[in-house]
Amino acid sequence: MKVDAANTALEVLREIISEQTDQPTSVRMYFAGAACSGPSFGLALDEKKPSDVSCSVEDIEFIMDAQEYEQFGDMLIQDLGGGFRVIPEKLKDMQSGCGSCSGCH
Q1: Fewer CB within 10 Å: C terminus or N terminus of the chain?
Q2: In terms of Cα–Cα distance, which of 11, 1, 8 is closest to 60?
Q3: 84: confidence class by pLDDT, cuts 50, 70, 90
Q4: For residues 58 and 10, is the Cβ–Cβ distance under 8 A?
Q5: What is the rounded distance in angstroms from the CA atom of residue 34 to the CA atom of residue 46?
Q6: CB within 8 Å of 2: residues ≥ 6 apart
Q7: Which CATH number do you get for residue 26?
Q8: So what's the pLDDT on residue 94?
């Protein structure tokens, strides 16, 4: 598994991990649903399970369910200047929001 993350995202995640001392320190990347613009992913602090794959980026361990990883592949965390977007690396050039429906707006 490979995760490519913007430095600003890593800084924010480090801050969150340091503030949440009663939480696990691994960052789970998970499939959160689909919309007209493609799959949506979330991030959460979680403990690694036997069915997970993982990788470390600098000092942060990212984990993902092995079946989800098999389906979506390596992940990218983009800095959108006010938020982050978590997507499969193979979809990195896809624009957010297709504009063809009112469900996403």
Answers
A1: C
A2: 11
A3: confident
A4: yes
A5: 22
A6: 55, 74, 75, 89
A7: 2.60.300.12
A8: 61
Total number of domains in the chain: 1
Identity at 66, one-letter amino acid code: A
Residue 14 placed within a domain: yes
Q: Is 82 left (phi over 0), alpha (psi -120 to 50) or beta?
A: left
pTM to 2 decimal places: 0.83
Residue 81 domain-assigned (yes or no) = yes
Take residue 54 and report the two structure tokens written for it: 């993982």
Strand order in the sheet with 84-88: 3-5, 75-79, 84-88
Residue 44's domain comprises 3-91
